[in-house]
Amino acid sequence: MAKLLKARVVITSPNNPPLSGGAVLVEGERIEALGAFEELKQRFPEAEIVDFGESILFPGFVNLHTHASMTIFRGLADDLPLMTWLENYIFPVEQHLRREWVYWGAKLAIAEMLRSGITTFVDMYLFEPEVIRAVEETGVRAALGEGLFDFPSPGYGPLEKGLALTRELLESYATHPRLKIIVCPHATYTCSPETLKKAAALAEEFNTLLHIHLSETRDEVALIKARYGETPPFHLEKLGLLNERLLVAHAVQLTDEEIELFARRGVRVAHCPESNLKLGSGVAPVVALLEAGVLVGLGTDGPASNNDLDLFGEMRTAAFLQKGLSFDPTRLPAEKVFEMATTFGARALGFEELGFIAPGARADLAVVSLAAPHLTPFYDPFSLLVYSARGGDVTDVMVGGEFVLRGGKILTFDEEEARRQVIEIAREVRALTKKG
Q1: Within its chain, how far is the Cα of 229 from the centroid?
Q2: From CA 273, how far away is CA 256, in angstroms rounded?
């Protein structure tokens, strides 16, 4: 049966005025109609009415870069530089990583993301088939791939097996309605030119995205320049990897010339402002990238380096950073940063039917109730969602026309069970770190 979703305000996209007293008709996995509630009620009298009351209905967010299962390492090692954090803490404990840890960590992450209005996320991690299992069971949408390294991985062993696993996933999930497999070489400092070329060839063969950490820190730039004679972007350019299939995470340390190169090659960027700040990596030149025509979306990065999966927080931080650094409060306004979290993120993934509300679009939607004190009073929906709302304010989420969060309750899995499992996993992780 078709559902007629009613809210005080419907945000269709940042480029259209919000629809006051609006409604959205959902049939199957798509939006069939959009307009005033009374009009749609008369046109579709058989539709089930779902009244969200005093609320804002908006397109689901796209988390363009994360390592979801790292919920199990949240708070394990903080206040450290990136390479110290990775080499002295994360990489060593990941040598003991288990499949079930990844599965439960992903389920807990999905619960957190749903409560932040995230309907789609991009994941790069280890034992990625376990993340796939979590995605299939929970009803969310994802683009994901196994992290590839030159050194042996606890998930697959030697690199060639990692490439073989990636190929197997690409073949197995080619027609999945909610899953997109991407190719994920970790970074230019953990992957040789030969590895990067093999990964790129796989992405080209299957016409999918190549996702990589790039130009995150000054130390990374200096290392790659010393090793290969070029900065990370020009290193990839020399290898032939800069194109519309490339999605880079971070892109903090960029020159004007590199920004222009990204724009010319059609490279997409996942901006992760809070992780970059916490690790002391710097601030990405987001406004310059956008003005150059680069497609920039928002990501949380992993919950061990952020330490949450709250895209409301990322929107607010992204906007405030650009205003503060430029001494210009008009930089990166609420509508633009909301567009980065929705339409731009979806387009960066090639999901052309997501990130907006219109007839024919997929029904990936989220709702924020206006009842909370920090969401009162209500003047402008973009201002409220970007500057006032936070993770946990979302009451309802729909993915592909099906409710996965309804009235504050997750419908597709036991959130408390995931939490209990991760608490037990954390005890094991703590024991491992003490031994180390």
Answers
A1: 32
A2: 19
d(CA 336, CA 349): 18
| Residue 426 in domain | no
Of 250, 232, 149, nearest to 192 by C-alpha is 149
Type and span of the H or E element at 431: helix 415-435
Could you identify the residue written with the tokens 């990636």? 166
CB 301 within 8 A of CB 249: yes
Same domain, 253 and 235: yes
Residue 327 lies in a domain: yes
Pair (135, 178) in one structural domain: yes
Spacing of C-alpha 179 from chain mean position = 14
Per-residue pLDDT in tens (0 to 9) along the chain, 436 residues: 899 999 999 999 998 999 999 999 999 999 999 999 999 999 999 999 999 999 999 999 999 999 999 999 999 888 888 888 888 888 888 888 999 999 999 999 999 999 999 999 999 999 999 999 999 999 999 999 999 999 999 999 999 999 999 999 999 999 999 999 999 999 999 999 999 999 999 999 999 999 999 999 999 999 999 999 999 999 999 999 999 999 999 999 999 999 999 999 999 999 999 999 999 999 999 999 999 999 999 999 999 999 999 999 999 999 999 999 999 999 999 999 999 999 999 999 999 999 999 999 999 999 999 999 999 999 999 999 999 999 999 999 999 999 999 999 999 999 999 999 999 999 999 888 775 4
Identify the CA nearest to 97 among candidates 64, 61, 72, 132: 72
Give this prediction's pTM: 0.97
* Cβ neighbours around 77 below 10 Å, total: 16
SS (H, E, C) 240-278: CCCCCCEEEEECCCCCHHHHHHHHHHCCEEEECHHHHHH
List CB contacts of 331: < 8 A, sequence separation 6 or more: 287, 322, 323
Tokens of 138: 């929970």
State the CATH number of the domain containing residue 90: 3.20.20.140
193: containing domain: 61-348
User: CB–CB of 255/214 below 8 Å?
Assistant: no
Token pair of 107 as six digits: 């389920």
First-to-last alpha carbon distance for the chain, in angstroms, is 57
- My answer on whether 101 and 40 are in the same domain is no
Strand-strand pairing, 22-27 and 30-36 = antiparallel
What's the one-letter identity of residue 416? E
Is 432 among the domain residues? no
Instruction: Please say whether the beta carbons of 75 and 27 come within 8 A.
Output: no
19 Cβ contact list (under 8 Å, min separation 6) = 9, 10, 11, 12, 34, 35, 36
